[in-house]
Amino acid sequence: MKKTSFNSALHMMAALVVAVAMFSGVATKAVAEEKLRVAAVFETPIEEPWVNQIHVALKQAEKEFGIEYTWSESVKSADFARVMREYAEGGYGLIMGDSFGAERIARRVAKSYPDTAFTFGSGIGPAEPNFAVFDNWIHEPAYLAGMIAGKLSKKNTIGAVAAMTIPEVNRLCNAFCAGAKEVNPEAKCKFSFIGSFFDPPKAKEAALAQIEQGVDVIYAERFGVIEAAAEKGIPAIGNMSDQWELGPDTVVTSVVWDMWPTVKQVVNQVKAGVFTSQDFGQFSFMGKGGSFLAPYHAWEDKLPDDVKSLIAERKQEILDGTFRVPIDESTPKSE
Fold it and tell me: How many other C-beta atoms can be found within 10 angstroms of the C-beta atom of residue 309?
């Protein structure tokens, strides 16, 4: 009886071990297969360069981190809260987007879902416990682009067509102008603001008007400007992404915003369960790989060697921390 009981006990223990192993295997597999669900809510169409850079970075996270990613574009302020709530209640662990036009709405929704991570483009600060912010801190390459414009201008008149006079836009325009004036003290800067984040026809019209006024190098802070520059045959500087293909003969370079360092940091924190409300703005700086000047493409041979050397030297100083591009968010004034 003792031997039989002992054998029975062994069989029972073995069965228990197998059962535990099988259960553990299922649980481990379930955890391994669990994906972070990420949603983005954009005020503008996905083709608008600012939100497109966020979208591109999230698509990269989808490939590299295996997240589940979806998005809503052209969301009006009246619908912003509803769309955000639908994603939060749908089990999405991270919700990103641009909230400039719906700033208060986005923050109010985030308070209702403290267990969800929210990370939005914003001109102001983060809010506890779960609303983080970022912005396109690309004034450094904008300064370098201004240096190029200052050297290329034959009429000593450069221009910039931008969205509106808000700090995020002002600092890019002012940095561009400051870079031009550093290398060409005679340079004068003209600015036009279209009052919209995305209105290509209006931006093109403003650019054509500037060119008529003598602008011979122009910064396309908004979509539509490069088309005008191509038509008139003047050098242009793209913005947000490498926009060389929009004007292969006229786009000298572009001020690029790479959102990957920001998205990578945010996604990793959420996946690790250590996400906190914070300002991720530093990840857009050149030193973090979040911004840079695009290649010169067709201008590689047309741009004078001394200009390329000058830009390379100043770029290295920025990366080394020995030169700081001034941050001027005051309203730019045309000269």
Answer: 10
What number does CATH give the domain 35-134+260-288? 3.40.50.2300
Domain 139-256+304-320 has CATH 3.30.470.20: no
How does strand 157-162 pair with strand 291-293?
unpaired
**Cβ-proximal residues to 171 (8 Å cutoff; 6+ apart), any chain:** 139, 142, 327, 328, 329
Over residues 136-155, the mean pLDDT reads 97
Q: Which long-range contacts (CB under 8 A, 24 or more apart) does 223-229 make?
A: 223/47, 223/48, 223/49, 223/198, 224/161, 224/199, 224/200, 225/161, 226/250, 226/251, 227/200, 228/203, 228/204
Domain boundaries, the chain: 35-134+260-288, 139-256+304-320
35-134+260-288 against 139-256+304-320: fold identical: yes
**pLDDT single digits (tens) 279-313:** 999 999 999 999 999 999 999 999 999 999 999 99
**Tens digit of each residue's pLDDT (9 = 90 or more) over 179-197:** 999 999 999 999 999 999 8
